[in-house]
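G., the chain you wanted modeled:
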Amino acid sequence: MKKKIKNNVYWVGITDWDLRSFHGNDYSTHSGSSYNSYLIQEEKTVLIDTVWAPFADQFVENLEEEVGLKNIDFIVMNHGEVDHSGALVKLMEKIPDTPIYCTANAIKSLTGQYHKDWNFNIVKTGDRLDIGNGKELIFVQMSMLHWPDSMATYLTGDNILFSNDAFGQHYATELMFNDLVDECVLYKEAKKYYANIINPFNPLLIKKLDEIVSLKLPIDIIATSHGVIWRDNPMQIVEKYYEWANNYQENQITIIYDTMWDGTKALAENISKGIQLADPDVNVKIFNVSKTDENDLVTEVFQSKSIIVGSPTVNNTILSSVAGFIQLIKRLKFKDKKAASFGCYGWSGECTKILNELLSDAGFSLIDDEGFKVMWNPDEEKKNEAIEFGKKIAKA
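Predicted structure as tokens:
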């Protein structure tokens, strides 16, 4: 069922209440998601993006009922990833000659995935498409936000920016607009989305945000491709993106560890005590990586100024859960964050050396070149040393 966004602009997407993982199993979606597709009905009827392939039949049937497929004059594909383009094959079986407007890179991604030679029309930043009644679509390339093929589309007159993956969230709701939903939940999901998907492209993002602002287009609505649409002060999320893109951190130190027989856990708890004694104002959080959703933990790293990572030594190395998580945060390219290491060992004791190498390789500045390690389980003396190590971390 289509839902009115503004004037002759409608949402025709799908709400996926059951979605719990995305990008394979690489991103957790506790709040579900939506695949936002939009229909503009002026003198020309324009479809902006489609939905994920499992919903293709439902999507095409809904469009047929709501508007009639033969009445669609243009299709705009802002991005070729399958959660946006998955229903395109089913749709184009019905209307094979309909012009598709997209970037040159989007043609590569769409033909590479679907092996179809559709009626593609290449657009670039500043190109316009007249859709009648005095309104135009203006295209803005958004390369690497978050694929090379990405773009945004702006509708004049109604002042709507169809932003695709930028400014979105994985958040299923029937309320649709930012002024109707719980703001705390909205920003929690928006920050998680940014930390896990957008953060690697910070330098490009800042340039692209500057470019959008320089176009001096009045923006009354930012219509995202996932989650909630921003209509109440939509530029608030643009301002947040500027803030988050500037190597974001809060007054938070996060302790991340895994443990075999609770010795490393005891160190984590006492390091936390030391941090709090040295700096009562800092927000200290402790997470066992094997018992914590990794994408939620990425968000904690994103908002931290320092992380302390711990693992026991096992088979001359560290636990795979800790190693895997460091590899995950490496690819997200966090900047201006500090790190330290700790762990227990019984025999060889390589844990802190390996942790420091991995953390340094992931772009973190080491607070302590040695880290803090304890042979066997810590006694009271070693627990007190862990407290002192925590104080050192806080002062750093």
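The radius of gyration is 24 Å.

Shout if anything looks off.
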